[in-house]
Amino acid sequence: MSEVVRTDALSKRYGRTTAVRSLDLVVHRGSIFGYLGPNGAGKTTTIRMLVGLLRPTSGSATVLGHDVVRDRDEMQRRVGYLPGAFVAYPDLTAWEYLRFLGHLRGGIDETRVAGLAGRLSLDLDRHIGTMSHGNKQKVGIVQALAHDPELVVLDEPTSGLDPLVQREFLEILREHRDAGTTVLLSSHVLSEVEAVADEVAILRDGALVVVEAVDRLKARAQRRVDLVLEHDGAVATLLRTPGVHRVDGTGRRLQVSVEGSMAALFSAAAPYGIERAVTHEPGLEEIFLGYYEQHHEHEEVVR
Ligand SMILES: Nc1ncnc2c1ncn2[C@@H]1O[C@H](COP(=O)(O)OP(=O)(O)OP(=O)(O)O)[C@@H](O)[C@H]1O
Question: ABC transporter domain: from which residue to which, for each copy (predicted)?
Answer without folding.
Answer: 5-230
